[in-house]
Amino acid sequence: MTEQPDMTPKPKPVPTPGKIHLSAQNKPVNTAKTPDLSQVLSFGRVDEDGRVWVKDGDQERQIGQFPAEVPENPLKIYARRYLDLAAQISLFAERLPKLAEREIDQTMSSLREQVSEPAAVGDLPALREKVAKLQEKADKRKEEVAAERAQAKEEARANREKVVVRAEEIAGQDSSRTQWKQSGQELRDLLDQWKRLQHDGPRIERSFEDELWKRFAAARSLFEKNRRAFFNELDSAQTQAKVAKEKLIKQAEALSSSTNWGDTSRAFRDLMSQWKRAGRASRRDDDVLWQRFHHAQQVFFDARNAQQEAESALETENLAKKEAILEKAEPLKDLTDIEQLKAKLRPLQEQWDEVGHVPRADVERVERRMRAVEDHLRTLEEDLWRKSNPETKARAEGMAGQLKSLIADIEAQIEQAKSAGNEAKLKELQDSLQARKAWLQQVETF
């Protein structure tokens, strides 16, 4: 038989696509039980002509030949090929849950080809059975990969749409409440996120991606349009506010030298209300405008405060003067001579009227003390008038006569009650007598 170059033990196996190649220095690590070398060798033989045979199921086929001298352990290299192939299958079985669909197909195709009629000594039907079982697992794994890919694609679509929806929310904000700097930065961050998802994530349908991108681009364009419109309107409003506030400043500066404290204070309050309603100019202009307006206010109010402080000092002096007058006037409440009281009180009243205002908090207190002295004089004069009034005196004398007659009558009844021993009647008459005597005493004072 002529020699088959691809079956000699000397050439190294040629790599095939998807095949797991091993070297003596890089053996696969697997936890599966490795066949015993003696068991593997039992499947091969070398005949007297140096031909190498392997028992492959129910048949025996030649897998190589030694044309010259047959080496020691001639089947070892063929057995090693078998063990390497078994190791490849075991390693693939371990890696299968982590492989992608394309790599699974490539590797399974390679393994099927390698176990078809390999130039190796060992239990080849067992290897083919393992490959067949691996094919079932590979098909299941491919289904899982397809499901994972579909889920990943769905998540990718959802993540892209979240970016777009958030961009549309930002673009749809109320311009008067939008934080333009923060929102603009968030849109830039969303664009970076879109690029990362596009670069790192799974591919999605081109039509769906294009539709999302159009929405995203439209949201960014709308945001920029609204931002320009807002700031254009803001610039216009700030310009109007600046003009209005410059007019208010001129009015404030004209009022700053006024000494009409009450009216001017009210005018400044009105200007302040107009200032608040005028809105804000740009930050730089508004600060300068406010300093000018505030300075005009301050000039006026400083002058008013200085005037009030001077008046307050004068009122404090006036308070001391009035309290000194009261020290002289209050002892007059002990006098009962009307003319003497008038003579001493009149000059004190004149001094009192000449003294100016006192602090508001003390007005009622000092006025009440002076009124007490004047009320004492008024009471004396009213008593004197009542006593000297003929009509009043006549009425008092008539009433006194009636009371005296009534008292005499009650006293007679008291004597009768005593004689009769009527204690209850006696008590009642004595109380009535006491009341009538008190009335008589009051009438006789008129």
Describe the structure.
By secondary structure, the protein is mostly helical. It folds into five domains: 5-149, no CATH class; 150-235; 242-311; 315-388, no CATH class; 390-444. It has helices at residues 37-41, 76-95, 101-116, 124-171, 180-200, 206-255, 261-277, 283-329, 338-354, 360-388, 390-420, 423-444; strands at residues 44-46, 51-56, 59-65. The protein has a three-stranded antiparallel beta sheet, with no helix packed on it. β2 (51-56) and β3 (59-65) form a beta hairpin. The protein is elongated and about 180 Å long. The N and C termini lie far apart (174 Å).
Question: What fraction, in percent, of the residue positions are helical?
Answer: over 70%
Largest sheet: 3 strands, antiparallel
How many β strands by DSSP? 3
Oligomer: single chain
Q: How much is the average pLDDT? A: 83
- Which spans have pLDDT < 50 for at least 5 consecutive residues? 1-32
Total number of distinct structural domains: 5
Order of strands, widest sheet: 1-2-3
Order of helices and strands: HEEEHHHHHHHHHHH
The share of residues in extended strands comes to under 5%
Feature tags:
disordered N terminus, 3-stranded antiparallel β-sheet, elongated, mainly alpha, 446 residues
Give a short synopsis of this structure.
With 446 residues, the chain is mostly helical. It is built from twelve helices and three strands.
